[in-house]
Amino acid sequence: MITNNERSVLITGAGGGLGSALLKRYIGAEIPVVAITGKASLRIPLCHSDSRKITIYSCDLMSDESTNSTIFKLKNHDFQAVFFCHGGPIISSNDPSKIYSELRAVLRLNFESIVQLIEGLIEQLIISKATICAVSSISGMESQGNPAYSAAKSALIAYTRSLGRYVSKNETSMFCVSPGAFHVEGGYWTNIKKLDKQKYDDFVDNRMSAGRIADVDEVANFIFSLACAATPYIAGNNFVFDGGQGRGF
Questions:
Q1: DSSP code, position 6
Q2: Residues 153, 240 contacting (CB under 8 angstroms)
Q3: Do the Cβ atoms of 68 and 88 come closer than 8 Å?
Q4: Averaged pLDDT, 51-78
Q5: Boundaries of every domain in the chain
Q6: Strand pairing category for 33-37 and 7-12
Q7: Whole-structure pTM over 0.85, yes or no?
Q8: Which of 26, 30, 125, 145 gives 139 a disulfide partner, CB atoms 3.0 to 4.6 angstroms apart?
């Protein structure tokens, strides 16, 4: 049911953080953007204020009904690339052995909602030979955080690898990116740096081989570059961008 002849990109979580940083790259590249945000409005960067190139859909990705409604609206667009940048811990318990009560919500936000969106759009994405990018985390590869969050991000990596192999045969590129810690306005590490400098410095010294934590724009530039260079031969691979935070090969 594609009626829009101009190809565009889809970015979830565009209301802030990594999604917002990626949005700026595409607005700057003069490519129409379809932005999904949990908020009714989206603050457009002042340096790229051509709102005619941005279509905004407000969607509660924790809700099956809201997500399905948004999928129906997305059927009108011809996508050259889609980026699933939303997610978060939404975890209140500090006890790693007590995660069951929050596990479903964490899985819904970080994994199930992405599967639902891809499943609803996969036919048109294959027809368009679109590039599909799912943002996971180094936490999905090794012990880096709460077990519920790690489990959800690990599932996303495995799903992307498996589905990516399938769609590669249809000339469709699909890959996953697993960032390590990075700075974003109001984010965890930005706040820790302000509130507990010793804890922040210890983490950088002990975990970050690069000797620093990345800025969100650095992560967005990496993802943007991968998307521009993507080919179906990627076949669902996971690209780690963690400054040496992880210890696995």
A1: S
A2: no
A3: no
A4: 92
A5: 7-241
A6: parallel
A7: yes
A8: 145
Contact 103, 89 (CB under 8 A): no
Structure tokens that stand for 142 in this block: 């090794």
The token pair at 75 is 């059927």
Instruction: Name the class of domain 7-241.
Output: alpha beta
Contact predicate 188/139, CB 8 Å: no
Q: How many CB atoms lie within 10 A of CB 224?
A: 21
The pLDDT value given to residue 42:
59
Contact of 79 with 7, CB cutoff 8 Å: yes
Question: What are the DSSP calls for 104-136, one per residue?
Answer: HHHHIIIIIHHHHHHHHHHHHHHHHT-EEEEE-
Q: What is the CA radius of gyration of the chain?
A: 18
Single-letter amino acid, residue 5: N
Residue ranges of the alpha helices (H) in 30-88? 64-74
Residues in the chain: 249
Q: Could you give the CA distance from residue 121 to residue 67 in angstroms, rounded to a whole number?
A: 12
Contact partners, residue 226, CB within 8 Å, separation at least 6: 133, 175, 177, 239
